[in-house]
Amino acid sequence: MSAFAQPVTRPVTLTSEELSACSEVAKKLRQQGLELNQLCPRCIAITTINKKLRVDDAVDQYKLFMKAIAEFNINSFDDIYAGFVDFDTVIAPRLNSYNVCGLDSQQRQIFWINGKNPVQVSQEVAAVRAGWFWFCAIHSDNVSLRQGVTFVIDVSSNNSKVGNEKKMQKTWQSYPLRPQRILIMGASYLKRLFINGVVSFASLFSKNKVLERIRFATVEDVVKECGRENVPEYICKGVGKDGDPAAWVKMRFDNFPEPKLW
């Protein structure tokens, strides 16, 4: 029996070509020393497809991700999932950093971070684990998995600095994400300088060409690009989406059955 609610949309299915590439990635990861509990079929599939079935690139990206989360003493997917026993108490509160949205003009998911809950040092492990759940959920449809997402970060309400921003950004950039565009909303001039500095620092540790895709945008810009009915309700009151992030993750998670890769 699944840990979460049953899916409500058409489940993700992989083509024979995708399955073959994913299986080869899993095989190479094992050959390079990763243990079985460090291999997640969903993560391998997302990574491989985001890398356009380039096996060696997918292997490198997957290892980069595992290395990044190991800094938080998360050494396997057993550490991430923890048998799902603490999802409601530990993971769900951190999911409030994200907002459920509609789809962009290409029918891809909108990955929205509201910036209201800076990650405190004591919350880092929970935040990284929750980030995986959201990352997996956002890719759990057949369009977003293959075509990427629109990425929106609202920094208008986040004026406090914790001191771990560069560390966390380095981790977020290790996720095998392929945003088609990155919109940073509500950043003042000084905040833009800070964000560019953090992202530039993190880019030194990954091959992610994130700087090329960043665009600083106003609320009006984001609404125009995404549509009033597709942004969170706090942006367009009475029109936007207003879903519970934890419930949405539960619903989406089962929409991506684990592919059999070994």
What does this structure look like?
This protein has 262 residues and is α/β, with parallel strands linked by helices. The protein has helices at residues 16-31, 41-50, 55-70, 77-81, 87-94, 124-138, 144-147, 165-172, 189-203, 219-226, 245-253; strands at 98-99, 110-113, 149-154, 179-185, 214-217. A five-stranded mixed beta sheet has the order 1-2-3-4-5. Helix 2 crosses helix 3 and helix 8 (165-172) crosses helix 9 (189-203).
Name its key features.
262 residues, alpha/beta, five-stranded mixed β-sheet, 11 helices, globular
DSSP helical segment count? 11
Total beta-strand segments: 5
- Kindly name the structural category: alpha/beta
Rg over CA atoms: 18 Å
Report the β-strand fraction as a percent range: 5-15%
Q: Which strands sit side by side, in order, in the main sheet? A: 1-2-3-4-5
Largest sheet: 5 strands, mixed
Uncertain stretches: 201-206
User: Whole-Å distance between the termini?
Assistant: 21 Å
Order of helices and strands: HHHHHEEHHEHEHEHH
Question: Mean of residue pLDDT?
Answer: 86
Which term fits the overall shape? Answer: globular
Fraction of residues in helices?
Answer: 40-55%
